[in-house]
Amino acid sequence: MANIKRLGAMLAEMDADWAVLTGADSVCFATGHVVPIEIGQSPFSGGPTVAFVGRDGSAGVVCPNTDGGQGGDYEEIAYAGFANAVTDQVGNYRASVSELITRIGLSGSVAIETSSFPRALSDLLPDDMRPMDVPLARLRAVKNEDEVTHMAFAAKVAAAGQNEARRLSVPGACEMDNFGRIRSKMEVMSNARCALAGEYITGVDRTSQLGLPISDRIIEAGDPVVCDLAPRVAGYWGDSCSAFVVGGEPTAEYERMYDAAKNTLELAIAELRPGLRVCDFDAKLRAHMKGLGYEYPHHSGHGIGTSVHEFPRLVPDETALFEENMFIMVEPGSYVRGLGGLRCEFMLRVTATGAEVTAPFEMTCK
Amino acid sequence: MANIKRLGAMLAEMDADWAVLTGADSVCFATGHVVPIEIGQSPFSGGPTVAFVGRDGSAGVVCPNTDGGQGGDYEEIAYAGFANAVTDQVGNYRASVSELITRIGLSGSVAIETSSFPRALSDLLPDDMRPMDVPLARLRAVKNEDEVTHMAFAAKVAAAGQNEARRLSVPGACEMDNFGRIRSKMEVMSNARCALAGEYITGVDRTSQLGLPISDRIIEAGDPVVCDLAPRVAGYWGDSCSAFVVGGEPTAEYERMYDAAKNTLELAIAELRPGLRVCDFDAKLRAHMKGLGYEYPHHSGHGIGTSVHEFPRLVPDETALFEENMFIMVEPGSYVRGLGGLRCEFMLRVTATGAEVTAPFEMTCK
User: Fold this and answer.
1) Is A316 in contact with B117 (Cβ distance < 8 A)?
2) Which of A33, A117, A112 has the alpha carbon at shortest distance from A75?
3) Which of B141, B161, B187 is the last residue of a domain?
4) pLDDT band at B103, cuts 50/70/90?
């Protein structure tokens, strides 16, 4: 899944010699090295795991010894972060970066990630530093063949979670407990623990609001459920959202609202294609939804890959064009006090001529 | 739970004017602001959430708008990280830090955290920067009254997870599935999602090795189980490890090995007290275990708080002294090919005169 050659081409275009990747998402994109993230930055690290990629195709990774040996095609130094002794993690991190820089022959100009480059590495690298945030985001948006496979599996894991959510959403069950069981289903399928974003919200009142945390609420018959599942599987994110009514008997108004969102998602599948402008796509979806009597206050969707939300974001002022092998989440929804909320979200892959749903799952409110 | 005054005293001792906290753990320790960590750095952030604490007791936090409004006693700027528009997260982050610096009147010298301070903030702060890694680690090790309450609850959540693990460890159950259910139990008790470190490993072969990932293995009667649970509850970590045999009939050798670890843990409870040197305590535990015929290749334990592993680490060369209201994990264990593995871990609070177990749970192998 590594993208060393593609990064080399980006560097040539920027006229930079080396890329220094410090975001966990970018390290994985560049080299395939998966940085564990689910308890935040490792307490055994002296700074962010860093990957170096040269214009000539050289690559190296410096990571704590808890995460080394993943076997990718790069030089690796796994420094003592965890040891049965007093350990100077920052010192070991800096020394290992120095050593790797020598080993791979890094010199010239470097491209860095502004949001994650640590001050602790500033004096070890050439003074000629330039941000690569924008070209890197654009490069990451288009997936290579291996990445397409990874995305497909992550989406399949999310779809399995959606099936489990539907099975577990019965009167008497608890939101938080169900969310744990759904997570467990996805982790068994991945045969690994997964970082997980998303929500599982139930009831008319709660689903009509955005941004609530999962709670210990007990589910009742007739409750709307909004289930948004985004598991990270081997460094790549799946995402998905379903909405349905417990017991399968929605009110006529809820069903009408649901059909509007589903119909808008179907329009998205029919319309998405390479060369289309993101803002035009976004506007078309919003106008369609509004024509059916509903609207949503959030983005129409977002790119996804080694980060759960990445370029391009589907917002009214994004002028970028869609390209083949972008993975795009599309998620029209509606949230109405007294009626409840819903959101219909599939992962779409932009194909040569249109779009296809990656790992579809049941999309009905009944 | 904020430690603004204590940080002020530390700054006075360092002769620095302001502390700039950029680790999620330190931000929580300083201000009580809880940074979400369970999907790593937020895709809606322009850099690490930062807290400023002045020697005079002023405090401020800059965080993405997804995490603001927690109501702590500090100035807050929650910048647009998530918006229904193209968003320059790094630009917004930097602008908000600039604005907060003006608002709180930051000037003079600043103390920084080496492992997390971002290059993106370097030019916004005074040139007079000095690392506070060592004094901050020592300050964080001793908990204030509110923190003691937080730690006690986090330990109680871990203990509830241990009870659930014992209940679910039956023939036919799956490691990964059980781990999800145990997590779910702890999240229901916390009424919140929890980042979770730890492991749940079963069988003679697997428990005799360290560092294996949780798998889809199916549990059999007579299996040893090693269950290490460390949930993060409202910014503070619990931790715990139990070991037992499915069906409750250990072999005589396994029971002898178990008794050695349990006995060593009991010695630790009896011996731990303020003023004791960490390396002396560590040596005593290792010697005791060895006298009983077993040994462990890892630390004897570690401090815990807003990070799951923090100062002091219980290793042979740590010369620091224990102090009242340190929370210390102690975890003697043994791992033997053909016999299996085990580890007995409680959270101990150092009291004025000795130590007490925080939230004990069943510690037998049967």
Assistant:
1) no
2) A33
3) B141
4) very high
- Our CA-based measurement puts residue A38 at a distance from the nearest CA of chain B, in whole angstroms, of 5
Cβ-Cβ contacts under 8 Å between A and B: the total is 192
Is A145 at the interface with chain B, CB within 8 A? Answer: no
If one counts the domains in chain B, the total is: 2
Alpha-carbon distance of A281 to A279, in angstroms, equals: 5
Residues of B in contact with A315 (CB under 8 A): 83-86
B window 257-286, beta carbon within 8 A of A? none
Q: Are B149 and B349 in contact (CB under 8 A)?
A: no
Q: Work out the average pLDDT over A160-170.
A: 98
Do residues B152 and B261 both lie within one domain?
yes
Same domain for A179 and A122, yes or no, is no
Q: Where are the alpha helices (DSSP H) in B48-144?
A: 89-104, 133-141
A365 falls within a domain: no
Whether A43 and B84 lie within 8 Å, measured CB to CB: no
> Are A191 and B41 in contact (CB < 8 Å)?
no
Q: Is A363 inside a domain boundary?
A: no
Q: What 3-state DSSP class applies to A242?
A: strand
Query: What confidence category does residue B2 fall into, taking pLDDT thresholds of 50, 70 and 90?
Result: confident
For residue A9, give Cα distances in angstroms to A15, A59, A120, A153. Answer: 10, 14, 28, 28
Q: Is the dihedral of CA B112, B118, B122, B125 positive or negative?
A: negative
Q: How confident is the model at residue A1 (pLDDT cuts 50, 70, 90)?
A: low
Give the position of tokens 């060593």: B264
- In a shared domain, residues B195 and B327: yes
Give me the domain span that covers residue A158: 145-358
Quick check: bond before B312 cis, omega within 30?
yes
A63/B contact by beta carbon, under 8 A: no
Q: In chain B, positions 302-361, which contact chain A (CB-CB < 8 Å)?
A: 307-310, 313, 315-318
Q: Identify whether residues A38 and A173 lie together within a single domain.
A: no
Judged by a CB distance cut-off of 8 A, whether residue B217 touches chain A is: no
ipTM comes to 0.96
B75 touches A at CB < 8 Å: no
